[in-house]
Amino acid sequence: MPIPGTPSRAELVDHLVRTRIAGDVATPRENNLSHYRKLANADRHYWFGLELGDRWSDEQDVLAVMAERVGVNDDAEYRYGQDTIDPELTVAGLERLAARLRKAADGQQRVLFATGHPGGLLDVHRATAAALRAAGCEIVVIPEGLTTEEGYVMQFADVAVLEHGATLWHTHSGEPMKAILTAMEREGRPLPDLVVADHGWAGYAGQHGVDSVGYADSNDPALFLAEAEGTVQVTVPLDDHVVSPRHYDPMTAYLLAEAGLS
Predict the structure, then answer these.
(1) Does residue 187 contact residue 143 with C-beta atoms inside 8 Å?
(2) pLDDT tens per residue, range 5-59
(3) DSSP assigned state of 218
(4) H helix and E strand count, the chain
């Protein structure tokens, strides 16, 4: 069960490992390597709304970044079995994210929240949005009537999501964020000062020139490459869909406390 209140750093590290948000995660090594290879081979499904060009065409370069920023095994010959996310890197990412949230709160900035993984991360984003609103930030309300080829771009609990067939949809695509930002520009509305998101929502926002921070799994290398290049400001490594969304509560509590928002 989730630990109550706000954990210490050591308690959070232990919790992340016990719930497999980090440590020995559920994503197998062969899946990680398959995704790194597909990104390197310019499969845009794995680019998350970014324009990577030919800069990451060597999958060994992708693996090296993922070993450094996520903590996956750095041995290119290790191809099957368990892989890992270093919980210390997860907490360090949360602390960098907290610093950017604090900047948003201090400046009472306009912040847009979005998720491509609502089954895991919707409530993490919702709680963060509520804390920033209480600190005086404007939580961006997206334009109405937006669609992509996958479905409708909607907003629930202050978080933009993709809806398809009356169901919140898992998507890697950057097209929903493109639809939002394009519509805001068309309406003459100022773009967000900050996007807090994941998957293609975070990637496209960064590519569009908006400050972007977010979360990514060990089999989703694009946002970590974007952080390495400076297109995305912060990417927190974690398993983005564990057994219970409640397992993320201590992580969210730690994030908001570090940002001075709890």
Answers:
(1) yes
(2) 899 999 999 999 999 999 999 999 999 999 999 999 999 999 999 999 999 999 9
(3) T
(4) 9, 11
